[in-house]
Amino acid sequence: TLPVDVPRLAERIEQLNRERQEASTGKVLLLDDDEELTEHYRLVLTNAGMSVRIMSRPDGLLNTLAEFRPDIVLMDIHMPPFSGITLARMIRFEPEWLSLPIIYLSSEQDRDEQLSALAQGADEFITKPISDRLLIRTVRILCYRARQLSKLVSCDGLTGLLNHSHIKQALGHEHARVQRQGHDTIVAMLDLDHFKAVNDTHGHAIGDQVIKALATLLQKRLRDTDHLGRYGGEEFVVILPECELPQATAMFEEICRHFSDLTFSSPEGQFHVTVSIGLARLNQFSLAEQALNAADEALYERKRQGRNGVSC
Ligand code: GH3
Ligand code: MG
Ligand code: MG
Ligand code: MG
């Protein structure tokens, strides 16, 4: 027999390639007062498949970050009357951008100046001029690492869905968007039915498989623009932007049916599990938290009415 599991290895390599490919389409925010140079870098990075936003002045920098959501920021240091160092410190002051890679791109040659600039919160220092190939390579690697890292900190280990704090963060963003644009957005709270009994009868490990199966079903049925999170043990939160209540209800009813059709098995025998779902309209509430509470109340109403279905 082969010393390695070849199909698993091939699958892993394919996944790594896909991730690299994804990183080469990374989003770069470029901030430099030298407009000729930024235009050149923009062309170079765009030709390499990346999506680039340029700013020649830092006005509205935090808004641009919130809207464009770059994977990395490339920033000049000397942009009179502004200083890249102060800007890096300002970005770091926002908890949301604590792990956003900030790369200085500067002609500053003095080592001490470079080090003290880095001490203010940036991650790397690239000295200008830089060759096009080196720029592409560096940006690609940093985008790749940044995405890996952000996946690691934002995902739940068992299901790969967003974890508790990141689904709440997504809810906050969607709530802000709803308030600006006024479209319907649905928040759903899901909870597995009689799950304690599943664990008691079939064991915790099989229980975990059931949790994973629901996560996989949700991932398959929902759109890329929906947000899926594991809120707690056997509870999930889903956010459906630009979706109306009747449409969401029908879709979740179908998910309930599909889930209850799945057959699980353990040494104790085969079994089925059901899920209850509560829905609320995010745009009805002035605070995101209130919508979550409303979805939770609808969920418990569903539990009282006999589980395995949707309430709103
Ligand atoms: P209900 O239909 O009213 O929701 O009943 P329930 O038994 O599902 O409700 P309850 O909230 O009382 O129990 C949830 C159970 O989920 C308790 C706990 O043992 C189990 N659980 C929580 N997190 C995990 C997990 O990560 N893995 C497994 N296997 N079980 C978990
Ligand atoms: Mg400059
Ligand atoms: Mg529960
Ligand atoms: Mg439960």
Give a description of the structure:
The modification 4-aspartylphosphate is found at residue 76. Keywords: Phosphoprotein, Two-component regulatory system. Residues 27-143 form the Response regulatory domain. This protein is of the alpha/beta class. It has eleven helices and 14 strands. The chain has helices at 6-24, 35-47, 61-68, 84-92, 111-118, 132-154, 164-181, 195-202, 204-221, 245-261, 288-304; strands at residues 27-31, 51-55, 72-75, 78-79, 82-83, 102-106, 124-127, 186-192, 227-232, 235-240, 264-266, 269-271, 275-281, 309-311. The strands form four sheets. It has a five-stranded parallel sheet, with helices on both faces. A five-stranded mixed sheet has the order 9-10-8-13-14, sandwiched between helices. Strands 4-5 form a two-stranded antiparallel sheet. Helix 1 crosses helix 6 (132-154) and helix 8 packs across helix 9. The longest helix has 23 residues, at 132-154. The protein starts with 5 loop residues before the first helix and ends with a strand. The model has no long low-confidence stretch (mean pLDDT 92).
Uncertain segments: none
Q: Could you say which small molecules are bound to this protein?
A: 3'-deoxy-guanosine-5'-triphosphate, magnesium ion
Largest sheet strand order: 2-1-3-6-7
Distance between the terminal alpha carbons, to the nearest Å? 56 Å
In what range is the share of β-strand residues? Answer: 15-25%
**Percent helix among the residues?**
40-55%
Report the biggest beta sheet as strand number plus sense, adding barrel if it closes: 5 strands, parallel
Number of helices: 11
Question: Which structural class fits the helix and strand makeup?
Answer: alpha/beta
Order of helices and strands: HEHEHEEEHEHEHHEHHEEHEEEHE
The protein's oligomeric status is single chain
Strand element count: 14
Shape: elongated
Give the radius of gyration: 24 Å
| Average pLDDT rating | 92
